[in-house]
Amino acid sequence: MTAPIKASLRTEQNKEIPFLFNPAELTISKATTWQSKESKGRNAPELVFQAGQSGTLTFSITLDTTAEGTDVSEHTTALLELLNVNPALAGSDPKTNKARPPWVEFHWGKLHSFKAVVERLQIKFTYFASSGMPLRAKADLTLKQYKDEAEQPLQNPTSFTPTLHSVHRLVYGETLDRVAARHYADPTRWRLIAEANDIVDPFALTPGDLLIIPEMPVRHRG
Question: Which DSSP symbol is given to 44?
Answer without folding.
Answer: S
